[in-house]
Amino acid sequence: MGMGGAQGLDDDIERIVDGGVAWITLNRPEAGNALTPEMNSRLAGYMDEASADLAVRAVVLTAAGTKSFCTGADLRSRREPAPRPQGAPQRAAGDVARMLRIGWQRLITAVLDCEKPVVAAVNGTAAGGGMHLALACDLVLAADSARFIEVFVRRGIVPDAGGAYLLPRLIGPQRAKELFFFGDDLSATDAERWGLVNRVVAAEDLVAVAGEWAGRLASGPTRTLAGIKWLANRSMESDRASALWEEALVQEMAQQSEDAREGMRSFAERRPPAYRGW
User: Are residues 174 and 241 in the same domain?
Assistant: First the structure.
């Protein structure tokens, strides 16, 4: 990974833009790269920014260290609640649901809705919300030492952070329930075999392969890739008539891009296309 470009000021999430790729690195290895509420919000913001930034044409999400990708929410870090009336409970009905909506659910949605392709480079354990964060990405690379854990049942709670939405769509309800019910560790090799991971690579090769994949994406027709992502994600919930109508509309929009015109020109001129991202 190149180290040029703009770097974020926050130590717990590093953001570097290099060669059209935004490298976003969770940087709390001593805490399992667990996300505080502030990190969660900032990470969602980075995804939103990537959509609008013409200098960013692909995103890589990874983490520091070799032990953990992300172990979910940092349970030791809580936002201070607003002052409560005398006699009010410490946790009122609606508090948990609201916290999830503005926190992890917003983050997962931001990854799914990011208009640039997002590659997860899973360097270690992805547990709970951290597992779902990886699975929300468009492509998932995993180090051979990585593990995926649906840890919720071990704590007596249901999967959140979009897990019950994502997992059955990726591997079917029976496999998903096996992971949800037992909470067992899933090796990177098994995750690839089940279809949760695109490719398993040696840990020392993870950054290089992520860079290669992201570089290829960053040199592609960026708006076309956004349309492909949107259609593929929508296909999991659309009926046939809606899917075909949306396909036609997105194709209509894609063909108005400069990159589409360049693709046609390069084909006619028998040369490689030089896509610019708009």
Answer: no
